[in-house]
Design brief:
The protein is built from twelve helices and 20 strands. By secondary structure, it is α/β, with parallel strands linked by helices. Strands 1, 2, 3, 14, 15, 16, 17, 18, 19 and 20 form a ten-stranded mixed β-sheet that branches. Strands 4-5-6-7-8-10-12-13 form an eight-stranded parallel beta barrel. Helix 7 crosses helix 8 and helix 8 packs parallel to helix 9. It starts with 17 loop residues before the first strand and ends in a 5-residue tail after the last strand.
Length: 401
């Protein structure tokens, strides 16, 4: 069954709005969307133009083929926007993601780059036309061979574990063949598939350009030890977004570093892949949450860590914020800001976002806060715990933050 779009209430929550090509209520500004909202929940905003701009920048600059990591945000409007911007390949991880993308984009090329998959997922993906599969151990390799009937048209990508990299969210420990086993696994894949490749991930939100060069050099050493030529090198994701407190270099610097490293390490002739997820959609989405109560410098909201603010709680990430709906008493007076911590709406005390989040000092019950850069993972991770959740999504034609 395809992944459903965001849940819909029994009656429309937005009044007097046009409808976008993607079936969403559409407004020129987020203020207009808020003025039209009659619901009681937090709600999500997509900025299609920002998503399209990010996709075009990546497609034109990255020295290889772009695969959108669907996990970042599978909303149909996001997928359609990326397709219209020129993205043609998508990284999926499950039966439902495969079906979902194919239901929205029948002509998309799909890559199943999750290193550990169920047998049913492998069978379903191959039957659906997927020919690119990742693995990171002998057992997973054999699963793929068995469940595809030892097909002659496979492309197998060996996921390698990297030494620790300088990323805001390191991804070491769960996936990847180590240096001792990787050469033999690459040889084994070379003998079982039409094409083979290496894939790595430097970590989410990688702020260090050199990490990509280090990873590519590491991949080169594995290829040399194996004696097996490769057809693909997948540089994974990790391309950063400018969150508060994080100031990444511009994407062209990353693309230039990767391009130079590929050439320096003899990968000029292979097909290069990149898997941006956060990079393409983070700045293209936000959450609007309402203040339900203020206790000193703590605000209680109708969204939290069980909603779209998981990273703000579990990982202590900060997001750009602004108050939307309350005019200042004196337009000439300077805006006084204060640091606030936040609680979400559930009964769980873990539902806390320490921040601090810098907001107007007179913020109070009934005010709304826009949390930016939640187009990636924020909107995707929202749950229904305690009956709270993100039930509505709108498209806004302005560019947001």
């Amino acid at each position: 069954m395809p992944i459903a779009p965001r849940r819909v209430l029994a009656r429309p929550s937005f009044l007097s709005s046009a409808e976008s090509d993607f079936g969403l209520p559409v407004f020129e500004t987020v203020e207009e969307a808020l003025a039209a909202y009659e619901g009681d929940d937090a709600f999500a905003v997509l900025y299609p133009q920002k998503i399209a701009d990010a996709a075009r920048a990546f497609l034109s600059g990255f020295p290889g083929k772009t695969l959108y990591a669907v996990k970042a945000n599978p909303h149909p409007a996001v997928l359609q926007t990326l397709w219209l911007a020129g993205v043609r390949a998508f990284d999926v991880a499950s039966i439902r993601e495969t079906e979902h993308v194919q239901s929205q984009l029948p002509d998309a090329e799909l890559f199943l780059m999750h290193p550990i998959k169920s047998r049913a997922t492998i069978r379903h993906a191959y039957a659906a036309g997927v020919r690119h599969f990742a693995f990171d151990c002998r057992y997973e390799l054999e699963k793929i061979i068995q469940e595809t009937g030892a097909a002659a048209d496979l492309t197998l990508h060996l996921r390698i574990a990297l030494p620790m990299t300088k990323a805001a969210m390191p991804l070491t420990g769960k996936f990847g063949a180590d240096f001792a086993s990787a050469p033999e696994l690459l040889q084994a894949a070379r003998g079982r598939a039409a094409h083979v490749g290496l894939t790595f991930h430097v970590g989410s939100q990688c702020l260090d350009l050199a990490s990509y060069d280090t990873a590519i050099a590491y991949a080169r050493s594995i290829v040399d030890l194996s004696g097996a030529a490769i057809d693909y090198l997948d540089c994974g994701g990790g391309f950063p977004v400018a969150y508060p407190g994080m100031a990444p270099r511009p994407w062209p610097d990353y693309f230039a570093t990767i391009g130079k490293s590929l050439e320096a390490h003899g990968f000029g002739a292979v097909t290069v892949l990149g898997e941006p997820g956060r990079a393409l959609c983070a700045e293209g989405g936000s959450t609007l949450a309402r203040v339900e109560l203020r206790k000193g410098d703590t605000l209680y909201l109708n969204d939290g860590t069980y909603g779209s603010l998981f990273d703000a709680g579990a990982c202590a990430w900060k997001f750009p914020v602004k108050r939307l709906n309350k005019a200042e008493a004196d337009d000439q007076a300077p805006l006084v800001l204060e640091d606030f911590s936040l609680f979400g709406p559930t009964c769980d005390s873990l539902d806390k976002m320490s921040g601090p989040f810098r907001l107007p000092s007179d913020i109070s019950e009934g005010d709304w806060i826009e949390f930016g850069h939640l187009g990636a993972y924020g909107q995707t991770l929202s749950t229904d715990f305690n009956g709270f959740g993100i039930y509505d999504t709108v498209a806004v034609m302005s560019t947001g933050f």
